[in-house]
């Protein structure tokens, strides 16, 4: 096992406090810090620290795939099949989805054939992999994810009392299924700018009226839920005025993840993270198809080709207890598995079964990792690389409670 240093990525939607605080650095940071990557993606591989030297994890895996990856090397072409991140969003991310494996292979080959450079901002497919992903909240984490039940959306749109929405509400009410969602989403996301400039202000006025009539002391229920939806719509419009993605966001589940809860997104699931900090694990891909709420490249026709319009009815994942220390997050993804360890001060060490190839990421406190007579202290914001040849590991908190995530290849 060796210490692994993540690759820091700065985007405008990132936070100047969240990652800096987690890593124990000066706050605020000079620039928005959005993601800390722990993996071997060619775009930004993490660094292995060993014997006083630094080496790219990607270089190590390319040089010794069988020793480092073991039995999973042939199945994934000698590559680490997952990418682990800490994500910190202060502003909303784009309205986006990720392709399936077949869609990614076809799209990657097509863009290679048309000679779109890999580093071009107009590129959709930067690799040939799909990108199922799981995010686990470290603090309250807010997101839009998956299409809401169509009848619930009809109820929401009627509650806004906007005459200009009636034709769209009736469309969805007449076909309250994936077909109706496809028709309405496609209509809104491709709305001519002149029509959008007329409709969107009316919708925003409806959101303001609705919020004024909701009692702040209202108990949890439909009114409170719809108030959150209306408030989110206004916030998105303030960040991205005249963007059709603001309308489209009205069709999605508005979610709040409490610390420890997870959200799994399969291929084709439309989503936009709004704010918060979390641990994210995904297939080792950087393929993103955007539909709005961003200054970056948007490709609506390609997004429509990959979207899954089936309503996502129970998107939040509750962790499953494994023992007194650990919790797992079950997903169908073969590329990755994720467990969370809560380590109390002065408690007995937690046993982490042989996980290599894997990554142990500390997100709070300091953890002492022990293995076959060797020890490695890891502080929050840092990680350890565990190769396929490493034995079982024991982990205990140093100087206070600590939190550790274990990422490995799925079953």
TrEMBL record:
Residues 3-148 form the Phosphomannose isomerase type I catalytic domain. Binds 1 zinc ion per subunit. GO terms for cellular component: cytosol. The active site is at 290. InterPro entries: Man6P_Isoase-1 (IPR001250), Mannose-6-P_Isomerase (IPR016305), PMI_typeI_cat (IPR046457), RmlC-like_jellyroll (IPR014710), RmlC_Cupin_sf (IPR011051). It catalyses: D-mannose 6-phosphate = D-fructose 6-phosphate. Its EC number is 5.3.1.8. Signal peptide: none annotated. GO terms for biological process: carbohydrate metabolic process; GDP-mannose biosynthetic process. It holds the Pfam family PMI_typeI_cat. Its cofactor is Zn(2+). One of its GO terms (molecular function) is zinc ion binding. Zn(2+) binds at residues 96, 98, 133, 271. Coiled coil: none annotated. Keywords: Isomerase, Metal-binding, Zinc. NCBIfam families: manA (TIGR00218). PANTHER family: MANNOSE-6-PHOSPHATE ISOMERASE. Belongs to the mannose-6-phosphate isomerase type 1 family. This is mannose-6-phosphate isomerase. It comes from Nocardia nova. The gene is manA.
């Amino acid at each position: 096992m060796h210490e692994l240093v993540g690759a820091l990525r700065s985007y405008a939607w990132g936070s100047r406090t969240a990652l800096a605080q987690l890593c124990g650095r000066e706050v605020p940071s000079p620039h928005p810090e959005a993601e800390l990557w722990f993996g071997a993606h060619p775009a930004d591989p993490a660094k292995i620290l060993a014997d006083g030297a630094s080496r790219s994890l990607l270089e190590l895996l390319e040089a010794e795939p069988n020793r480092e990856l073991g039995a999973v090397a042939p199945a994934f072409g000698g590559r680490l099949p997952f990418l682990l991140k800490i994500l910190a969003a202060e502003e909303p991310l784009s309205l986006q989805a990720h392709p399936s494996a077949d869609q990614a292979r076809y799209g990657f080959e097509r863009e290679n054939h048309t000679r779109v450079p890999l580093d071009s901002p107009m590129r959709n497919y930067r690799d040939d992999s799909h990108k199922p992903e799981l995010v686990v909240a470290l603090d309250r984490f807010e997101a839009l994810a998956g299409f809401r039940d169509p009848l619930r959306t009809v109820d929401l749109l009627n509650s806004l009392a906007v005459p200009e929405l009636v034709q769209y509400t009736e469309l969805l009410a007449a076909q309250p299924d994936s077909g109706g969602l496809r028709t309405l989403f496609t209509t809104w996301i491709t709305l001519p700018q002149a029509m959008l400039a007329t409709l969107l202000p009316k919708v925003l006025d409806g959101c303001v009226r609705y919020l004024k009539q909701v009692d702040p002391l209202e108990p949890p229920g439909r009114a409170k839920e719809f108030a959150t939806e209306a408030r989110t719509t206004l916030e998105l419009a303030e960040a991205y005025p005249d963007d059709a993605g603001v309308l489209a966001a009205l069709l999605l589940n508005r979610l709040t993840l409490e610390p420890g809860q997870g959200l799994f997104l399969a291929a084709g699931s439309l989503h936009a993270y709004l704010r918060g900090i979390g641990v994210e694990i995904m297939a080792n891909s950087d393929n993103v198809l955007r539909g709005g709420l961003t200054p970056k490249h948007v490709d609506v026709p390609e997004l429509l080709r990959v979207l899954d319009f089936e309503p996502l009815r129970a998107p939040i994942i509750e962790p499953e207890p494994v023992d007194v220390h650990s919790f797992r997050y079950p997903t169908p993804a073969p590329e990755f598995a994720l467990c969370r360890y809560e380590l109390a001060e002065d408690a007995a060490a937690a046993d982490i079964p042989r996980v290599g190839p894997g990554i142990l990421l500390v997100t709070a406190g300091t953890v002492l990792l022990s293995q076959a007579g060797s020890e490695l202290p890891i502080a929050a914001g840092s990680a350890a690389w565990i190769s396929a040849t490493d034995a079982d590991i024991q982990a205990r908190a140093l100087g206070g409670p600590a939190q550790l995530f274990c990422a490995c290849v799925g079953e």
